[in-house]
Amino acid sequence: MNLLKRLSYHHIFLLIGLVFGLKMVFVNPPWQANDEDRHFYNAYNLSEGHLGPQAQNDSCGFVLPVNLVATVIQFQSIKFNEKTKLNLSVIENIKENELNKEKTMFWITPSGKLQPFPYIPAALMIKMGSFFKSSPVWLGWWARIGSLLAYLLIVTLAIKKLPHFKPLLMLIALSPMALYQGTSVSYDTLSFAFLFLFFALIIAYYYQTEKISFKQIMLLFLVALAQRFSKDGYFLMFFSFAFIPINKFENKKLFFGTFALMLVASFLPSQLWSMYLNSMKLPPEMPLQNDYLFSSSKSIEYHLQQPVEAIRLIVLNILSQGKDWIHGSLGRFGYSYTFLPITIVSIYLLVIIFSVLTEETEQKLSMRFRLPVLGLALLNCLAIIVSLFLIITPVGGHYLHGLQGRYFTPLLPFLFVLLFYLPKPIIQASWMRWAVPIFISIVLWYTLQFINETFYYPV
């Protein structure tokens, strides 16, 4: 307990994240996070010095070693249950099989045109780690380790920057779902981390006594830019800065100039990447599925003909699937087949709320800040639902299939701080400083046992 008192929250976060994150890298079966195979191919392609996909025979994809692809395919989309699990001996038998880079194949992938930025940590670690162990399985583990280290370093900075609500951000960033994504090869890793950092900067700027400077706004801009280079879907939160009182800025010109910078951060990354891809004159992407018509433009046209019905369908999807989305924002593993027990998730939510109710600050977080940012976060949640309803639901379809709770995970800090913050703590609990790290450790220990028992046959 004395050690916990001496350590800062960001040090505790880093320690817990390293211990349980490294364990999760190896406990989670190879390439078992959502779409991790596709993301891994992107990271491997980048590690080989390719900034984007290649084209062959009117197709778009990557040149990959044959035994790399063959190894990855062995672990794809396993729907784990009592009768379908992995045997650890399978991994033990193939983890030392050397990568054969001489024998290659052209692998067509629908994810080949994703921006390379979020794969930089994984690609760097693939390159470095391959000097020690270069089997396909080990390359997957090296990539995960690279993602984990980047995630932990960025969120450590975020917690350090936060003047208050450090336990809240630590609970969310080390929640089973967040750490699971942080230890996988995915664009979610940097997307989560940079949005957490953006949140920390917004709260820090609100509380600081000195005026917000141009240098600080440029830092906010760079963080927003990095998040947008990582993944789409969250640029609305960039404008949460607008609810910081204007008199906290050095001048009005800086306040309004920040709008322009956030607009640039929202649209520049995708425009630059589109221009680069167009310059390569690549063939069109292959559709994810051929049995249904997927077209966002045709879907919009279809629903505009009966907008009331479209709104009804979206509401019905929220009501029927909302519980699973909330559940999945904290704990849903494999290819989204495996939920943590609802009891664990419910307790975790209560502890997050409790941590906010015990927060003591020297200044009230104004309702004029809290409510608009809450509204913006809820609007962002709705935008994710509606956009995916139009993109991944077949034209004319009614059921939104494929939206997962992890899409809402990086929005949790905005939602929780604004829903539950009070000027004075309801509960005086100085012991929360050591109770939160212990609680997180217990939940993560349970999560590792849960993944192990769910995914593997007993030894």
Structure at a glance:
This protein is mainly α and 459 residues long. The protein has helices at residues 2-6, 9-27, 36-47, 66-73, 88-94, 120-129, 136-161, 166-173, 176-182, 188-207, 214-230, 252-280, 296-304, 307-328, 342-357, 367-391, 412-420, 432-455; strands spanning 54-56, 59-65, 104-108, 332-333, 338-339.
What does this structure look like?
The protein has 459 residues and is mainly alpha-helical. The protein has one domain (2-455). Helix content is 59%, strand content 4%. Helix 2 (9-27) runs antiparallel to helix 7, helix 2 runs parallel beside helix 18 and helix 7 (136-161) runs parallel beside helix 10.
List keywords for this structure.
three-stranded antiparallel beta sheet, 4% strand, 459 residues, globular, 5 strands, two-stranded antiparallel ribbon, mainly alpha
Task: Please count the beta strands (DSSP E, at least 2 residues each).
Answer: 5
Oligomer: single chain
Low-confidence stretches: none
| Share in β-strands | under 5%
Order of SSEs: HHHEEHHEHHHHHHHHHEEHHHH
> In which range does the helix fraction lie?
55-70%
Give the N-to-C terminal Cα separation: 36 Å
Mean pLDDT: 88
Q: Total number of helical segments? A: 18
Choose one word for the global shape: globular
Q: How many structural domains does the protein architecture include?
A: 1
Structural class: mainly alpha
Q: Main beta sheet, described? A: 3 strands, antiparallel
Using only CA atoms, what is the Rg?
Answer: 22 Å
Q: Output the strand order for the largest sheet.
A: 1-2-3
